[in-house]
């Protein structure tokens, strides 16, 4: 068992640029033994993906491997002809890619795609391949595999597509599976299922896995050994748990400690924003010949207040309506009824994707000046002055005013987005997943910046995120949303210490916390959660609820306060309302 | 089914709109059918008589309503110029030629452009791609009527492969007719081939950068297997729309080329009818061509759904 399956020696990869070769992978040595799971952790640009692509033989044509060797089962992969390499790809090794949405061919049936490596590498006939495909789809926990083979990728959810990707990778029983950020694009609840599935596959088949991720918690969860890459170089390696508990290299330490300290709770009781019975709709495309005015009910009767100086977190899976809520508050969606009151405020928004939300044709200075123009500041000099001031405040040099967004890194762009939201001097900022597109170490910088500005300018944030760890560190109070409803709302410590709603508990079960967890198998592999359906009566969470009783199907639960005076803890669950309280043992 | 009804309603609305538009256009532009029929020396009485016969003395809307009533019964009236023929007869003799010419051009475009586009993309940046690129650049720049003249000179006058102006009718000799139509079809097709090649090449190259292509390679597919098994169908989806536009343009293009090669098709009929103010013929011809274009678009919609499963379910 201790024989090496994959052996990378002195691997050096570079890209030719005008000023010579730009090295992205620098003398990397790495071994993966038979049946081992080895993780590579690092941020984007660290060379971790390049290394895996080199193993897989998928480097782009511009990439130059100047030195080194990659051996699989003692066979040298570098310098192989395309024809020779094809015999190994999909047979001895396979790859699971990051984006299940785009990594599958949209116009090809799922069955054909999953069975393709069998078609290429074996003599099996159509019927036999179909049988194996159905088997593989079933083994990754997909229901109705017989139907699935004839469906197309757009007909199934992201989590299911990632399972299809995994089925595709394991169908030919490869010796080595390379998983490149396989869970990054998925919701937390789905993420935990996929990781468990990978572990199960590893147990059942004994395949070796090279697991690439930027997420330390994920690495710790899955891998036995880990290497840490930074700027193309391996800076640390060893036993996964050991490395992450006692990091030796400075960069690893930075990675491990990339959470900012929590802020003090503000005691202000001045309401900045009052939301009462808010219902939000989306107008569906009106058809030419139908008179019916169709609209989709997204947010159902939400009520909450936001106090001055507070940081209010909003968490929930994608599709729960958190982004819709944000858009409605800043006025980008006018299809709503209910009360939405704020005092002379124009809340500003910080968007998730700093790459596409800044105008690429304009300089940063122009972008930052625009709100000032709208505000009516006509003096050019004064505007420049204010822009320079803002750039300094967000930790950038005033010379950035002359640059274009494309010349900036993701973190710098997000700083600009934050600066932009502050230009008008508004006090309420709605941040919609402001750091989820960024690397871990950059994330912590941006979060620190947000906290610094919060303290200095007495800002109020509504902080939307799917990352429960970030919310824990950033926020004073948290709203948990499910299908457009508040299912739980409480002060952050209360919520994290005593999560009451079954959905909140499910979310918390699926995050991989800093502490060791014994019961990671609590979400079983075959448990495909039913699609979220919005029924007419009863509890909207009924279909997924582990604790659901009979009356949950007939009675619509209301919000119940189980908190102490001054610290409300609202839960929308019938069983809670009847005085049941779940204990940690549940 | 609902889809079909919707499409037919759209077609009817389009036709109504187009017919009204041509009717009003002719009432606005100068010129008189009676004068162009009788000649400038005709007596005012004779002109008045003809005008009354053709209802030209009535207001436009009255004429339009009359025309519409008859047209709904399939009667498009008589040609002013060819008194003995009904418009329907006239069109029946001309339409097949134009359609044959258009179909030939279209087939030539598809048969030549698709392989060339794939080759160009497969060897992007290599000499073959550069060569194809240069050729398409040149052919795209030449208007098809000029190309027609050059082809006539080379093949008709120098090589004497065909007889310029010696059109053979379909009924007499189908093979001879096809042979005669090949050159005009090529003249119409060449510039369009160039466009389709470029479009397909770029579509393929942008598809090659997509994530699913990397997935396909990771399974051990060869370049050709990826190209024809995975990329082609995805790359064709935008090309289908483009080719549909080309198909409509071919019809317009054949009007000009019929003039150059003296082919008795719809194009020539329309041009002479316009200059002699033969309104009933023009009106009907425009409607026919409009219907054909709308029908082509309809076929493309169906093709689109076949090619892209995502459209099917939406």
UniProtKB/TrEMBL annotation, chain A:
Keywords: ATP-binding, Cell inner membrane, Cell membrane, Membrane, Nucleotide-binding, Translocase, Transport. Pfam families: ABC_tran, oligo_HPY. This is ATPase components of various ABC-type transport systems, contain duplicated ATPase. It is found in: Cell membrane. Residues 6-256, 275-508 form the ABC transporter domain. GO terms for biological process: peptide transport. PANTHER family: ATPASE AAA-TYPE CORE DOMAIN-CONTAINING PROTEIN (PTHR43297:SF14), OLIGOPEPTIDE TRANSPORT ATP-BINDING PROTEIN APPD (PTHR43297). PROSITE patterns: ABC_TRANSPORTER_1, ABC_TRANSPORTER_2. Its main location: membrane. It is a peripheral membrane protein. It comes from Coprococcus catus GD/7. Belongs to the ABC transporter superfamily. It comes from the Bacteria. GO terms for molecular function: ATP binding; ATP hydrolysis activity. GO terms for cellular component: plasma membrane. The lineage of its organism: Bacteria, Bacillati, Bacillota, Clostridia, Lachnospirales.
Automatic annotation (TrEMBL), chain B:
Residues 95-300 form the ABC transmembrane type-1 domain. It is a multi-pass membrane protein. Pfam families: BPD_transp_1 (PF00528), BPD_transp_1_N (PF19300). GO terms for cellular component: plasma membrane. The chain crosses the membrane at residues 95-119, 140-162, 182-200, 235-261, 281-304. GO terms for molecular function: dipeptide transmembrane transporter activity. This is ABC-type dipeptide/oligopeptide/nickel transport systems, permease components.
């Amino acid at each position: 068992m201790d024989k090496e399956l994959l052996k990378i020696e002195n691997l050096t990869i570079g890209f030719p640029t005008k000023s010579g070769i730009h090295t992205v992978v620098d003398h990397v040595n790495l071994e993966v033994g038979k049946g081992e799971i080895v993780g590579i952790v690092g941020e984007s640009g660290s060379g971790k993906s390049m290394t895996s692509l080199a193993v897989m033989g998928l480097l782009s044509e511009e990439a130059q491997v100047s030195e080194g060797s990659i051996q699989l089962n003692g066979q040298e992969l570098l310098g192989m002809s395309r024809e020779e390499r094809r015999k190994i790809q999909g047979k001895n090794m396979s790859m699971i890619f990051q984006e299940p949405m785009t990594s599958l061919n949209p116009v090809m049936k799922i069955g054909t795609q999953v069975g393709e490596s069998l078609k290429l590498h074996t003599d099996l006939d159509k019927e036999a391949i179909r049988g194996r495909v159905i088997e593989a789809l079933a083994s990754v926990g997909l229901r109705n595999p017989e139907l699935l083979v004839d469906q197309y990728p757009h007909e199934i959810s992201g989590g299911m597509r990632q399972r299809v990707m995994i089925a595709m990778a394991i169908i030919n029983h490869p010796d080595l599976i390379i998983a490149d950020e396989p869970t990054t694009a998925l919701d937390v609840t789905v993420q935990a299922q996929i990781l468990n599935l990978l572990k199960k596959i590893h147990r059942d088949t004994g395949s070796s896995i090279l697991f690439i991720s930027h997420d330390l918690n994920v690495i710790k969860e899955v891998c036995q050994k880990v290497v840490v890459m930074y700027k193309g170089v391996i800076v640390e390696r060893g036993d996964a748990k050991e490395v992450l508990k006692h990091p030796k290299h400075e960069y690893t330490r930075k990675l491990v400690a990339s959470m900012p300290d929590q802020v003090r709770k503000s005691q202000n009781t001045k309401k900045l924003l009052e939301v009462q019975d808010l219902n939000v709709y989306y107008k569906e495309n009106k058809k030419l010949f139908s008179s019916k005015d169709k609209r989709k009910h997204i947010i159902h009767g939400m009520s909450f207040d936001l106090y001055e100086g507070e940081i209010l977190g909003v968490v929930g899976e994608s599709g729960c309506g958190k982004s819709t809520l944000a858009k409605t508050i800043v006025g980008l969606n006018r299809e709503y009824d209910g009360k939405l009151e704020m005092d002379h405020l124009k809340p500003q928004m910080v968007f998730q994707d700093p790459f596409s939300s800044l105008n690429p044709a304009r300089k940063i200075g122009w972008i930052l000046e625009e709100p000032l123009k709208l505000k009516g500041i006509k003096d050019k000099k004064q505007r420049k002055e204010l822009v320079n001031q803002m750039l300094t405040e967000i930790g950038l040099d005033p010379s950035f005013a002359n640059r274009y967004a494309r010349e900036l890194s993701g973190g710098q762009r997000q700083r600009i987005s934050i600066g932009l939201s502050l230009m008008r001097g508004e006090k309420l900022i709605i941040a919609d997943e402001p750091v989820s597109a960024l690397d871990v170490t950059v994330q912590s910088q941006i979060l620190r910046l947000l906290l610094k500005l919060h303290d200095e300018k007495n800002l109020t944030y509504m902080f939307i995120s799917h990352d429960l760890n970030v919310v824990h560190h950033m926020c004073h109070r948290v709203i948990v949303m499910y299908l457009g409803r508040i299912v739980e709302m409480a002060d952050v410590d209360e919520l994290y210490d005593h999560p009451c709603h079954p959905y909140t508990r499910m979310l918390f079960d699926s995050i991989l916390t800093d502490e060791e967890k014994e019961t990671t198998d609590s979400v079983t592999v075959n448990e495909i959660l039913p699609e979220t359906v919005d029924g007419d009566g009863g509890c909207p969470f009924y279909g997924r609820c582990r604790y659901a009783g009979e009356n949950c199907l007939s009675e619509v639960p209301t919000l119940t306060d189980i908190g102490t005076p001054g610290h409300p803890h609202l839960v929308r669950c019938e069983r809670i309302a009847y005085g049941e309280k779940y204990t940690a043992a549940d | 089914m609902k889809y079909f009804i919707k499409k037919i309603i759209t077609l009817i609305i389009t036709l109504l709109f187009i017919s009204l538009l041509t009717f009003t256009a002719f009432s606005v532009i100068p010129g008189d059918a009676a004068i162009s029929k009788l000649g400038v020396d005709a007596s005012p009485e004779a002109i008045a008589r003809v005008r009354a016969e053709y209802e030209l003395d009535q207001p436009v809307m009255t004429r339009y309503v009359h025309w519409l009533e008859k047209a709904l019964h399939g009667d498009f009236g008589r040609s002013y110029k060819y008194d003995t023929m009904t418009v329907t007869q006239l069109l029946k003799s001309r339409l097949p030629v134009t359609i044959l010419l258009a179909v030939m051009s279209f087939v030539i475009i598809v048969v030549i452009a698709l392989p060339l586009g794939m080759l160009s993309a497969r060897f992007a940046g290599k000499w073959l791609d550069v060569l194809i690129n240069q050729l398409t650049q040149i052919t795209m720049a030449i208007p098809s009527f000029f190309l027609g003249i050059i082809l006539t000179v080379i093949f008709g006058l120098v090589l004497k492969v065909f007889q310029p102006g010696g059109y053979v009718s379909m009924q007499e000799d189908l093979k001879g007719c096809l042979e005669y139509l090949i050159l005009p079809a090529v003249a119409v097709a060449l510039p369009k081939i160039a466009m389709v090649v470029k479009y397909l090449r770029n579509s393929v190259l942008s598809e090659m950068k997509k994530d699913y292509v990397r997935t396909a390679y990771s399974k051990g597919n060869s370049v050709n297997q990826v190209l024809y098994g995975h990329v082609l169908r995805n790359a064709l989806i935008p090309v289908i729309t483009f080719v549909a536009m080309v198909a409509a343009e071919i019809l317009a293009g054949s009007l000009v080329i019929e003039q150059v090669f003296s082919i008795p098709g719809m194009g020539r009929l329309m041009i002479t009818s316009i200059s002699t103010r033969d309104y009933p013929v023009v009106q009907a011809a425009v409607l026919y061509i409009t219907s054909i274009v709308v029908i082509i678009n309809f076929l493309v919609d169906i093709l689109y759904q076949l090619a892209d499963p995502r459209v099917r379910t939406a």
